[in-house]
Every structure is written in structure tokens, then in C-alpha cells.
Design brief:
It is a single chain. With 197 residues, this protein is α+β, with helices and mostly antiparallel strands. The protein has 2 domains: 99 residues, Roll (SH3 type barrels), CATH 2.30.30.100; 75 residues, no CATH class. 41% of the residues lie in helices and 25% in strands. Strands 1, 2, 3, 4, 5 and 6 form a 6-stranded antiparallel beta sheet that branches. Helix 2 packs across helix 3 and helix 2 runs parallel beside helix 4.
Length: 197
């Protein structure tokens, strides 16, 4: 069941916009096969919300029946605002989304390869920065082994910030420990009650 000429964009009174293959059309209801909800989202580049030139729109698809075992659904006509034919680009994107859903292993493998490639480059950069900052050598670290044993869902910039804060904290801890050794504890609790009164 994959005839692109039967694909339709269905705008519902709920505000949902669907793309699906219409299998039956009656006066009181329509039946659709594999409906996907379509949403247009605006993506902002690092320039922020005021940089109009860096805005991009993306069409996002989501299986409208993702929590159901059904592949067909009947929609009452009084809930349908309009039915239009999609252009070739939207039809092709719909086919691609169905293919991704039908073959999740392919997408998982592709995402894993992309993550490992990006993670390796980011770890190399972080190690280089740490070596420069601490004037030490971290050549003994096998980046490939780290990547194989670590699952990371953290933005590389956040990792870099965490590492820098760890270095700062360790420097501050060392300096505060040396200060504590030279100072005497003036505010100690003399009568050992919990409120210090």
C-alpha cells in the first residue's frame, strides 16, 4: 500500500496536520493508512532569536498512531477541515519517515557512527586544552577505548566547561586547605551543642 497519488494532507479541527494514504472516503468518515503528524518548527542558529538570517524551518514527522498496533484509522468528516494533495518533496519526506520507522536499526547505526566521530574529535580537543592548561601530558589516554566504554549525551561545550570547573575547583581546594592549616579556628563551638549558643 504505497501509492503516492493517494497521499493526502489532512487538516483536522484539533489543529493536527496529517499526511497519510487515504484508503476509503465516505460521506461521514475517511479511513487513512499510516498517518503521520506534520509540524513545522523554527530552528535558530547561535545568533539567537533576533538574527533573522539564521532561522531555518524544518518539517517534523511523527507517527500519529505510534502507541497503537493499528495502521489504519477512521476519522469523522466533521473533524476534517481540509484535504489537499502534497507536493513531491513532502511525499518523499513522508516515504523516508516511514522507511526510518520500518528499519530502526539502520538509523541507530547511522546515529552511532555520527556520535562516535563527533565525540572523538571533541575528546581530542578537550585533552589538548587540558594538556595546555595543566602543562601535563595525557598521551597515555586511548581515546578510542574511552569512546567505546562511554555513552555520552552531553553537549561537548558542557563537557569542556565541566573539565575547566574541575581544574579550578581543585586549584581552589588546594589553596583553601593551605590557608586552613595556617589559621586557627576562632568560631568553634565551645559548649558542643548543635546551635552554638
Amino acid at each position: 500500500m504505497n501509492d503516492k497519488t493517494l497521499y493526502r494532507i489532512i487538516n483536522l479541527s484539533s489543529g493536527d496536520n496529517l499526511i497519510a494514504q487515504v484508503t476509503e472516503s465516505a460521506t461521514k468518515a475517511i479511513t487513512v493508512y499510516r498517518p503521520f503528524q506534520m509540524k513545522v518548527v523554527t530552528l535558530l542558529d547561535e545568533g539567537g532569536p533576533l538574527s533573522m538570517s539564521f532561522r531555518k524551518e524544518a518539517l517534523i514527522f511523527r507517527n500519529w498512531l505510534e502507541f497503537s498496533t493499528d495502521q489504519k484509522v477512521t476519522i469523522p468528516r466533521d473533524k476534517v477541515i481540509s484535504i489537499t494533495q502534497p507536493n513531491d518533496m513532502v511525499s518523499n519526506l513522508y516515504d523516508q519517515e516511514k522507511e526510518k520507522e520500518d528499519n530502526p536499526k539502520f538509523m541507530d547505526d547511522l546515529l552511532e557512527k555520527l556520535k562516535k566521530h563527533d565525540l572523538k574529535e571533541d575528546l581530542e580537543d578537550i585533552i589538548d586544552e587540558a594538556e595546555e592548561e595543566l602543562s601535563i601530558s595525557l598521551e597515555d589516554i586511548d581515546i578510542d577505548e574511552v569512546i567505546d566504554n562511554v555513552t555520552v549525551e552531553i553537549d561537548p561545550d558542557d563537557i569542556r566547561d565541566i573539565v575547566h570547573k574541575m581544574f579550578e575547583d581543585s586549584k581552589n581546594l588546594r589553596s583553601s586547605e593551605s590557608e586552613e592549616e595556617t589559621e586557627t579556628d576562632v568560631d568553634s563551638d565551645q559548649d558542643n551543642d548543635m546551635f552554638g549558643w
